[in-house]
What we know:
It is a single chain. This protein has 293 residues and is α/β, with parallel strands linked by helices. The chain has two domains: 28-116, Rossmann fold (3-Layer(aba) Sandwich), CATH 3.40.50.10860; 139-271, NAD(P)-binding Rossmann-like Domain (Rossmann fold, 3-Layer(aba) Sandwich). 39% of the residues lie in helices and 17% in strands. It is built from ten helices and eleven strands. The strands form three sheets. Strands 1-11-8-7-5-6 form a six-stranded parallel beta sheet. The radius of gyration is 19 Å and the shape is globular. The relative contact order is 0.16. Nicotinamide-adenine-dinucleotide is lined by residues 140, 163-166, 168-170, 191-193, 195, 198, 211-213, 232-235, 271-272, 275. Nicotinamide-adenine-dinucleotide binds at residues 140, 163-166, 168-170, 191-193, 195, 198, 211-213, 232-235, 271-272, 275.
Amino acid sequence: MQILNGQEVSLQIKNELKEKVNRLIDQGKRAPHLSAILVGSDGGSQTYVHSKVKTTKEIGFTSTLIHLEENTTEAKLIDQIERFNTDPQIDGILVQLPLPKHISGENVILSINPFKDVDGFHPVSVGKMVQGLPTFLPATPHGIMLLLQHYKINTNGMDAIVIGRSNIVGRPMSILLSSNANPGNCTVTICHSHTKNLPDICRQADLIVAARGKPGFLKGDMVKEGAIVIDVGITRVNDPSSKKGYILKGDVDFGSVAPKCSFITPVPGGVGPMTIAALMMNTFRACVENSSY
Length: 293
Ligand code: NAD
C-alpha cells in the first residue's frame, strides 16, 4: 500500500508556481491576483478561505479577501463580483461556498466572468470541461487528477466509482475520470443517495473516489484487494481531547481500508492540499491568459 501524499505533491506545485511568479516579476509584470469573497461566519468556510489566502501569500500572489455579513443581499454580493469582473488587476474570483440560504448559488456563479472563474463552477467552464476543451477545471477533481498523474498511476480501462454527485466534486470527477486521457479512460459509475447496494458496487471497483461527507462510512469489507481509494470527505468531528475541540475525518475508515489498497489518500494531507494547489494553478493561468495583462 502506498500513500498518495497530497501535502508533498502540493508543496512541489506551489514551489513551481513561486518560481514562475518570480520570473513574471523579473520581466516587469505583476503577480497573479486572486480575490475571494466570504459571506457569513461559518467556521469551516472561514478556515478554507483563510488557508487559500495564506497560500496565495506564500507563493507570491496578490490576494484580496472581502468578508460580507451573513445577512448581506444577493444583489450586494453580485455587485461586488461585478466590480471584480471588470477590474483588470484581478485575475481570479472565488466565492466561498456554501452561501447562506437566501442567496442563490446559481445566480452568484453565473455572475462571475468565466475568464476569471478559477473555481471552474461557471456553466461555461463546466461545458468546456465536458467537451474536453481547455478551461478552468474544478479544483478538487483537478487536484485528484494531478495526484494520480504525479504517481504515474495508469487508470486506462479501470472500473471507477465516484460516490457523490455534487457539482463541485462528484459530477466533475466522473467526467474527468471518463475523459479520453490518462489518468482518465475509466469506466465510471456515479453513486448517490438513491444508489442501491453501494457496498456491492464498491467491491467491483478498481478505483473509488469517496465524496459523500459521512465520516468513515467506506469500510474495508467494501473494497477489493489492490483498489485505489481517494478520500475527498472532510468532516469536523467533535474531539474534546484535541486543541481545537474537533478533528477532521474523511469518508474512509482508513484503518480497515488502507491494508487492502494499492494506493490511498490520507485525511488530512491528501485531497485537501491538492485542491488548494489546483486553485493556485488556475489563478496563475487566468493571470497569464488575461487579455488586459
Ligand atoms: P454534497 O453534500 O454536496 O454531496 C454529497 C453527495 O453524497 C450527494 O451527491 C449525495 O447524493 C451523496 N450521498 C448521500 N448519501 C449517500 C449514500 N447513502 N450513498 C451514496 N451517496 C450518497 O457534498 P460535497 O460538496 O460534494 O462534499 C462531499 C465531501 O467532500 C464533504 O465532506 C466535503 O467537506 C468534502 N470536500 C472536500 C474537499 C477537499 O478539498 N478535500 C473539497 C470539497 C468538498
